[in-house]
Amino acid sequence: PVTQAAKTQAPSKTLPDAQTVTSVTHWTDRLFSFRVTRPASLRFRSGEFVMIGLMGDPDPATGRQKPLLRAYSIASPAWDDELEFYSIKVQDGPLTSKLQHIQQGDQIILRPKPVGTLVHDALLPGNRLWLFSTGTGIAPFASLIREPQTYEDYDQIILTHTCRDVKELDYGRELVEKVRGDDLLRELMGDALDKLVYYPTTTREPSAKMGRITDLLRSGEIFADLDAPPLDPKLDRAMVCGSIGLNTDIKEILEAAGLREGANSAPAEYVVEKAFVG
Ligand code: A2P
C-alpha cells in the first residue's frame, strides 16, 4: 500500500468540527484508510461509529455549502490518540468520490457523537467472541481487536474477514500482524493476545481459504478448520458487520443456533451493524 508519511500538525479550525488528516493509505483502487487528529473531548467505546465528511459543493442558486456526512466506524481503539477510518472508494459516491482524494494536512469534518451496537456492553458475558466481517465491515473490529477489554472478557476471539479478492484482505492482515507484534499491547496483555484467531477468506480469487463465511458456517468447515466446537448460545457471542445480505444471512445462522440479538439497553448473545457503503 501507498502511505503518506505522517507529520503532526495542529488543526486550524476553518470548518465546524474540523480535524486534520495525519496519514492516508491506499490499499487497492477500491479501498483506503486514513488517520485524523482526535478531538480532546471525544470519548467513545471501541466498536462505535461517528459521522464524518467534507463540505459539499456550493448550491448553484445560493452559493451556500452544506456538510456531506456519512457514518463511519472508528477503526482505532478508544485509547489511541488519533482516529482511524477504513473506507471504500465509490467513483460516483457523493462523499467517497471526494474523500478518496484527501491528503495529509487536509481537514475533514467529524461530529463528535459516537454511537453504535458493536460494543462489549451490548453482549452478555461469554467465552468465545466471533467477529464476522466482509469488506470495510472489518473497521469496528480493527478497533475491538486493539482493545484490552476484548482479551480480558473472552478466552478466544475469532475474527473472520471475507472479501472478493486477496488484495482486499491486506488491511486486515497487516492489522492483525501489527496487533500481534505491538509492544504496548503485548506488555499490557501478555499471552492473552494469542487468543486472537484470524480467519480470512476470499470468494472470487483463489486463496488459501475460499468461500462465503455463511457457507463455511453452514457446512461446518470453519469449525473443522479451527478445531473448534459448534456455536453454543451459552458460550458464544458474536458481532457482525457487513453488507445487508451478509448481516441477514449470519443473523439467521446465529438465531438457528439459539443466539439472540442484543442491544445497549438489553445485552444478549449477538449484535449486528451495517458496514458503511457508498
Ligand atoms: P461474493 O463474492 O460471493 O458476493 P462486496 O465487495 O460486494 O461488499 O462483498 C464482500 C464480500 O462479502 C464478498 O466476498 C461477497 O461474496 C461477500 N458476501 C456478499 N453478500 C454475502 C452474503 N449474503 N453472505 C455471505 N457473504 C456475502
TrEMBL record:
**Source domain of life:** Bacteria
Q: Where is the composition biased (Polar residues)?
A: 1-16
> What is this enzyme's class at the first EC digit?
oxidoreductase
Extract the PROSITE patterns matched here.
FAD_FR (PS51384)
Listed GO biological process terms: cellular response to oxidative stress; heme catabolic process
Enumerate the InterPro entries for this protein: FAD-bd_FR_type, FNR_bac, FNR_nucleotide-bd, FNR_type-1, Riboflavin_synthase-like_b-brl
Recorded catalytic reaction(s): these are: 2 reduced [2Fe-2S]-[ferredoxin] + NADP(+) + H(+) = 2 oxidized [2Fe-2S]-[ferredoxin] + NADPH
**Gene Ontology molecular function:** ferredoxin-NADP+ reductase activity
FAD-binding FR-type domain residues: 14-121
Chain positions covered by the region annotation Disordered: 1-16
Q: Does the keyword Flavoprotein apply?
A: yes
Can you tell me which family this protein belongs to? Belongs to the ferredoxin--NADP reductase type 1 family.
CC cofactor:
FAD
Gene name as annotated = mvrA
Does rRNA-binding appear among the keywords?
no
Give the UniProt keywords, A-Z. Answer: FAD, Flavoprotein, NADP, Oxidoreductase
Per its record, how is this protein called by name? ferredoxin--NADP(+) reductase
EC number(s) stated in the UniProt entry for this protein: 1.18.1.2
